[in-house]
Amino acid sequence: MLKRAILLVGGPLAALLVTVVTALLLSGDLPDPLATHWGTGGEPDGNMPLPAFVVAVVAAELASWGSLLWQARTRGRDGLQLTVAPYAWATIAFVAALALITFAANAEVADWRAADEVGLLSVAIALAVGALAGLAGWALERGRPLAGGVAEIGGVGAAAGGAGASAAAGRAGATTLLAPGERAVWSRSLVSRPAAFGAVALLVGFVVAGLLTGGASGWILVAAGVAAAVSAGTLSEIVATVDARGLTVAFGPFGWPRKRVALDRIARVDTLVVEPLKYGGWGYRRVPRRAGATAVVLRRGEGLRVIRDDGRELIVTIDDAAGGAALLEALRAS
Predict the structure, then answer these.
(1) CA torsion angle for 163, 187, 261, 264 (degrees, to 10)?
(2) Among residues 306, 313, 303, which one has the least CA distance to residue 329?
(3) Residue 284 pairs with which residues in a beta bridge?
(4) Tens digit of pLDDT for each residue in 266-296?
């Protein structure tokens, strides 16, 4: 409970308070407008009204904090890992550090053009602060399960963290059907660290480029970085769920978008070993030379294949694929 309180409230609130309190304490010593952009030589060459700058910084921090709270709303109640935590903490700390650097450079000058020089070293310091905060966010969530399942048998529910659901799936596979009134849910999550780091690298690269460019072009670069990072982030993790509705694959840390194959449209289920290069690479893609086949490939290894009644296929790389396949067959037979 203490770790979750620090993660969800303590850290983000501290960064927000430091930003706002520093702005209030220094407001009498800061020019308005204040320097907010520096050229390659470190000299100030862009400005922004002080209130607008503070509002922009606070909005960025609140947006990152909100993403963390949103994931906690859907995953936290089950004790599952908040995979967005490192990135939210890193972004909040990075933005707060940039704000403090900006305030320090503008302190006690009458005009923004007289602000102290700010160079790449300052940006590197802000990035380092963000990286350390990201590591702290990761450490606070380390060890928590990525996904869980619930098996309800005879009306008795058991939170399984995945184990109970697998047992139910295995039992269902052995008997080929579920008993009347028996329900089972199988759920597994898979995180692609390379995709997650790639999303972060895209965001950082575009943000730094935007900071160096400045002006409207700089903001366009930042916006492009956010869009690219969000797009890459949807394939940083998946959660595959088998229940009475069929197979559902939820993408990204917020479980959106989702792809579902309805139970009554499933003709056959099996498992296989996925070799990414044979499926056209990593990501969500059409399988080469196999009409109507799509695949969600986050790594090499076991996968679950669902063949629809119209012949189309969906292949998903996921752990314990045999458990998911067994439960799907049991649900189809019941």
Answers:
(1) 40
(2) 306
(3) 296
(4) 999 999 999 999 998 999 999 998 889 999 9
Give CA torsion, residues 217, 223, 227, 232, to 10 deg. 80
Mean pLDDT of the residues in the chain? 86
Residue 175 has pLDDT above 70, yes or no: no
Residue 236 DSSP code? S
State the DSSP H helix or E strand holding residue 326, giving kind and residue range, or none if neither: helix 321-333
What are the tokens at 312? 């189309």
Amino acid at 33: P
Contacts of 168 (CB under 8 A, 6+ apart): 149, 151, 153, 184, 185, 186, 327
Q: Which residue in the block uniquely carries the two structure tokens 């940039």? A: 98
Tens digits of residue pLDDT in 247-267:
999 998 888 899 999 999 999
DSSP notation for 29-59 = GS-SSEEEEE-TTS-EEEEE-HHHHHHHHHH
Candidates 272, 271, 270, 239; CA nearest to 255 is 239
Measured between alpha carbons, how far is 165 from 181 in angstroms, rounded to an integer?
16
The CA-based diameter of the chain, rounded to the nearest angstrom, is: 81
φ/ψ of residue 255, rounded to 5: 70, 30
Quote the tokens at residue 297: 């490939």
CA distance 97 to 123: 9
**Strand spans (E) along 160-245:** 183-184, 186-191, 237-243
d(CA 133, CA 86): 7
Q: How many CB atoms lie within 10 A of CB 216?
A: 8
Taking the chain, what is the end-to-end CA distance rounded to the nearest angstrom? 41
